[in-house]
Write a structure and sequence with these properties.
This protein has 203 residues and is α/β, with parallel strands linked by helices. It has eight helices and seven strands. It has a single domain, classed as P-loop containing nucleotide triphosphate hydrolases (Rossmann fold, 3-Layer(aba) Sandwich). Helices cover 51% and strands 14% of the residues. The strands form two sheets. Strands 2-5-1-6-7 form a five-stranded parallel sheet, sandwiched between helices. Helix 1 crosses helix 8 and helix 6 packs across helix 7. The radius of gyration is 17 Å and the shape is globular. The termini are close together.
């Protein structure tokens, strides 16, 4: 790929957004960063990967007493706010984009990279019944538990996104493209995004 395309993928829980991102990566031959982003952020900052995983797309406040890697200086304050964690993650996202192309899932990447002209910001959704069905199949939960988990996850993602971006998670005007993955399926949705990127002159 000659152009440094960065695709950011926001997603409702159970919508298949991660699967779409992986399919995009396979078709375009470019890396996908989801949990991998957390590992890279940990490596870049000197913190443990577990630390970033615990703070992933949540607003929390952490004690640092047991989460430093051995390389990290002991002169740091005893506590780190979620804003500090978000700032470190933003630096990692910018570094990934600088060395792109790449596909980045969640973590306010569309906002973090808003000043770039090589990004395509996508949001993946699906009807509630479809999402519940996917969660039941994937996690083996009852419909009731799946719905409860879905609502809790989406609420957390919305609060996280809106707090850091002053924007509106999942609202069409926030993104370049919003798609219901249940209509075309995972592969068809990925194909649609690629065609859109070509028509937009990004590929």
């Amino acid at each position: 790929m000659e152009k440094k395309l960065i695709i950011t993928v926001g997603r409702q829980f159970g919508s298949g957004g991660k699967a779409v991102a992986l399919e995009l990566g396979k078709k375009l031959g470019i890396p996908v960063f989801d949990n991998e982003l957390l590992t890279k952020a940990a490596q870049d900052s000197g913190f443990s990967a577990e630390f970033f995983a615990r703070s992933d797309e949540k607003r929390r406040f952490f004690s640092l007493s047991s989460i430093f890697t051995t390389e990290y200086s002991s002169q740091t304050n005893s506590y780190m706010s979620d804003k500090d964690i978000f700032s470190m993650q933003c630096e990692t996202i910018r570094s990934i984009a600088e060395h792109g192309p790449a596909i980045i899932v969640g973590r306010c990447a569309d906002y973090v990279l808003r000043e770039l002209d090589c990004t395509l910001d996508v949001f993946i959704t699906a009807p509630q019944a479809v999402r519940v069905g996917r969660i039941v199949e994937r996690l083996g939960l009852s419909d009731e538990k799946a719905l409860e988990l879905m609502e809790r996850k989406d609420k957390g993602r919305e609060e996280y996104y809106n707090y850091y971006t002053f924007g509106n998670w999942g609202v069409a005007s926030t993104y370049d493209l919003c798609l219901d993955s249940s209509i075309l399926g995972v592969e068809g949705t990925a194909d649609f995004i690629i065609e859109y990127a070509r028509r937009a002159g990004l590929l």
